[in-house]
């Protein structure tokens, strides 16, 4: 990875993670590059046309960058379990005049073919994948186009599968990470493991460069990951309050609000395990939410949008890693410089 960073003119080993749903703006990606690092546009939940627009915006700045895509890894949910959960959550939707209980499970592939077509016809420097591993043919097409391909993994078994697919490097994610886990088996509980321990295990399992992510919030966290064998680290939550972040005002305020005093792993919002600030919704529905992605994501989507517009932090998916208290209202470059030990 060190050679890859050098080849792209990158001298800061702290990268900006892709955060789907709005936080990872072109401005944030550009700021990461200008700080000597690298940022990733979040391709998840976007059409290929919308992603192309953001790519064009960053390219116009003349900086290196990456794009992250979700790989289809659907978690089926029975119609009965889905409808039962919809009935439970309807009480929250009633506050906003929304109807959930007459819906059926929705499945999609997040515009996969269109986005791969875009990235092979219009190559970008780096592409990373999460939720699943693309087929070897797709990886080969991207690499032949000049793209460095990275795969998010959460354990050594997944690292082996990624290596077999031909990727260039791994993004090793610990369960302390905010937002969705990259696990390939989202129906199973996540193993409890520290990031340095996980990095060490993956480095022993495969001979690929490693970017470490999950709970990194201080220079000491960066140093620990590097000592464990990581070539670089990736941060997300600590950038959510920066000037360039696209996170909602309510989300940013909650990260600094003493009333939100812990994070929890939950699938209440989307049917996939994700780490968020504990709130009313996680308390009330985590125990009842079935595994079911993207069905539950679509089910609660309008409710979450309405709650965000209203600043209703009891019902917003307040994604946050365990180091969320270190997120500061400041330029992203300052956050990245501090983490890299430059301040």
Automatic annotation (TrEMBL):
This is Propionate 3-nitronate monooxygenase. GO terms for molecular function: nitronate monooxygenase activity. It catalyses: 3 propionate 3-nitronate + 3 O2 + H2O = 3 3-oxopropanoate + 2 nitrate + nitrite + H2O2 + 3 H(+). Belongs to the nitronate monooxygenase family. NMO class I subfamily. SUPFAM superfamilies: Inosine monophosphate dehydrogenase (IMPDH) (SSF51412). It holds the Pfam family NMO. The lineage of its organism: Bacteria, Bacillati, Actinomycetota, Actinomycetes, Kitasatosporales. GO terms for biological process: response to toxic substance. InterPro entries: Aldolase_TIM (IPR013785), NMO (IPR004136). Keywords: Detoxification, Flavoprotein, FMN, Monooxygenase, Oxidoreductase. Its cofactor is FMN.
